Amino acid sequence: MTQQELLDKAEQYFVGGGNGEFRLPPEVNFVVSRAAGSKLYDVSGKEYIDFLLGSGPMILGHCHPAIVDAVQQQITKGTTFMVLNEPAIHLAERVVEAAPCGEKIRLVITGSEAALFAIRAARAFTGRDKFLRFEGGWHGVSDTTLHGSRTLTPGDYPETSPDGGGIPRAWSADVLAVPFNDVERARTVIEQHHEELAAIVVEPLQRCILPRPGFFEALRKLATRYGIILIFDEIVTGFRLAWGGAQERYGVTPDIATFGKTISGGYPMAALCGRADVMDVMDGWRPADDPKRVIASGTFNANPIGAVAGMATLDVLEQPGTYERLFEMGDRITREIVSMGKEFSIPLLVGGEGPVLQILFTTDTEIIDYMSMFRADKQKAYVYGVEMIKRGCFVTPYEKIYLSLVHTDEDIDRLLEASREVLRDVIAKM
Ligand SMILES: Cc1ncc(COP(=O)(O)O)c(C=O)c1O
User: Fold this and answer.
1) Which of 90, 303, 328, 425 sits 20 to 30 Å CA-CA off 347?
2) In the CATH scheme, what is the homologous superfamily, with its name and number, of domain 3-63+321-429?
3) Ligand 1 close to Cβ of residue 404 (< 6 A)
């Protein structure tokens, strides 16, 4: 079948022609036929350098031989058991030992579940219902977390509302949100509501927004003072910004952290991990009538295929030089794109750091919160993404650029050459 025939079929059978929020613009939409290393190939045979990496899991690129080998071996030994299995125990040890907050862990399947269970555990442990989050952060698709994931009306802080249809409006009352990096607003809300607050939930690198010095330290202090559980959602940052994740990089230890993407090797696997006394609410031996007993179960939890793929990934990431290489590539892209912006008089910033970046077309001098991201020119970001895809660099419009250990200097050269062309010939003329 041709690519167009497959796209037509997808349009016919999938709701909205896709399988989630994320869809490519029609003018560059394609169907993946296969992938290897840093490259994707569509059904028409076109090659792309992949800077989406499946939204982050493929930090070793596609079909890494160590992962393929581990998965092939595990497939012949069994693929799901519902009970303890060897690979899951090895992965558990690895994550707990690497995470500064690690004491106990639960392995689940998706990042959404990990975030949901972390909040549920905090609620049960503290006996409180509300949690504080940060405007525009993403913690997956549960009914609990889909309040305040989008931009709020500034005067409304800390009130949230459902981010989409089908989410109970009443639940918004238990979700308070303030802008990322805004210590004073966070402090005010925490001091006003501390008796009702179970958790503070934060993406330590929120999308592509870096924490300002002192932000997490302030949250840590307030959480400790009022017995609130500090949750770092490290689904993106875990094992990506450093071996010990954002907690290690930014030097603040949460009570619980969530992991996904990087610990999955591209297979279903996610985790929540942290203080033993808090995690203990998920102990299945607690009596059924114990009001603190949290149900955090799932058929595919601790899946052995995800576990061996995750272990193979961590074995490679643990080698010397990993984070230096990821940051060297990220720093180079940031430096050169910023310099192109100046050369072609295009106001822009590169958000994020290391292997997680995002180009924002903005006259702001710093991206400090979701409002400043939101103000950036979306039309230019869209056109930049479309033009990059046309040139064989799979950079998704509006979204982050993810870097992997298998991106070569030539891949980065091609990204920069294509960016130069697009910025100079297209964006500068908009
Ligand atoms: C920070 C963060 N938390 C949670 C999630 C949800 O993970 P999943 O899509 O595996 O449910 C994501 C997914 O992108 C994420 O980036």
Assistant:
1) 328
2) Aspartate Aminotransferase, domain 1 (3.90.1150.10)
3) no
The pTM assigned to this predicted structure is 0.98
Instruction: Calculate how far, in angstroms, residue 112's C-alpha sits from the geometric centre of ligand 1.
Output: 6
Give me the count of residues in the chain: 430
Centroid of ligand 1 to alpha carbon of 342 (angstroms):
34
pLDDT tens digits, 99-117: 999 999 999 999 999 999 9
Model confidence band, residue 130 (pLDDT cutoffs 50, 70, 90):
very high
Counting ligand 1 atoms within 8 A of each CB, the residue from 52, 58, 108, 112 with the most, and so the one to mutate, is 112
pLDDT digits (tens, 9 = 90+) for 4-36: 999 999 999 999 999 998 889 999 999 999 999
Closest CA to 233 of 210, 265, 201: 201
**Is domain 65-317 annotated with CATH 3.40.640.10?**
yes
Q: Where in the chain is the domain with CATH 3.90.1150.10?
A: 3-63+321-429
Helix (H) or strand (E) holding 176: strand 175-178
Ligand 1 contacts CB of residue 112 (under 6 A): yes
